[in-house]
Amino acid sequence: MTELLACPGMSGEIWPDSAGIPINAHGGGILKEGNLFYWYGEHKVAGKRGNLAWVGVHVYISDDLVHWRDAGIAFDIRDGGPLRPGCVIERPKVVRNPAGKFVMWFHLERDCTYSDARQAVAVADRPEGPFRLLWHGRPNPGVWPQNTPPELKEPARIEAACREMPTLPYDANPLTPQLSVLGMDLETGQQSRDMTVFVDDDRTAYVVYASEKNSTIHLAELDGGYTGFTGRYWRLFPWRWMEAPVLFKRNGKYYFIGSGCTGWAPNAARSAVAERLTGPWTELGNPAVDAGGDTTYGAQGTFALQLAPDQIIFMADRWNPENAIDGRYLWLPVEWNGERPILKAPV
Ligand code: GAL
């Protein structure tokens, strides 16, 4: 594991693919199929405009996690399909469903205001694609979470949120407990931005996303094909303002690592543990314990790659919003202090 992670690309150096071109797969995730790893991520272009999506989702293939072959654009938005270049496609994650199809979920904004707050799902017969868009929208319109606090159903709070919220920028961090963002968005479906997909041992899959103006994480159960929501979802970490969710399981317990909400600028991560995915969750503090840990070593999490029960790689991005294509990668082994996940500084 330590030897594997000695690859300079995993600690923020330029990481060339097998053709010598820097790997372009940001906010990514990895699917293992047989002996091969497929790394999917946002294809960025140069400059600030590279923070928007002009191409789609890039995929690379490797058998050792160090050497990656460019397998092209797995989900392409340049083909005149329903998503237009200049939209926002973030944090793509691919899983294989029980029927053997490949299912990609990602955060979608159809413009750059981040007010759309949608998820999108695309499917393919082969892991390298081409992925075809199936649906995009907000999760579970008209449905309350399984664990809704009764006060959030109060008409006065919902009405106040409908009146006040639209006047605030999306990252205004209002005093959410006083306003029911949840109730405000009930009819349209809940806001969903930074996300990941987690498949449990029983093969039930979930999309986990930052909701309620990024104040609260939601865990939404997927149907048997992993392409739609079942209507069952839960609020986790209410009003803790976390995004960039990363989940993994070890010795029967669930672990969560998320970031704070400071846009592209890195901040201190937070970790948590639970006996059940739906909670209750216990926060365990900042997992990044070394100097530089207050910014997660300049990075923000995107995915946990579990190679063996106790071999987990925390994948993160060092964003470069001024020149998006030059964002770098930070992959760290998850270490343990008892039951607490630990991320040490890259060497
Ligand atoms: C980050 C988020 C990214 C992107 C960015 C936009 O906090 O993790 O995925 O949404 O904000 O400012």
Automatic annotation (TrEMBL):
SUPFAM superfamilies: Arabinanase/levansucrase/invertase
InterPro entries with a match to the protein in the record: Glyco_hydro_43, Glyco_hydro_beta-prop_sf
Any GO BP annotation: carbohydrate metabolic process
Keywords recorded for this protein, A-Z: Glycosidase, Hydrolase
Ligase among keywords: no
GO molecular function: hydrolase activity, hydrolyzing O-glycosyl compounds
Pfam families (UniProt xref): Glyco_hydro_43
Top-level taxonomic group: Bacteria
Coiled coil: none
Family: Belongs to the glycosyl hydrolase 43 family.
Protein name: Family 43 glycosylhydrolase
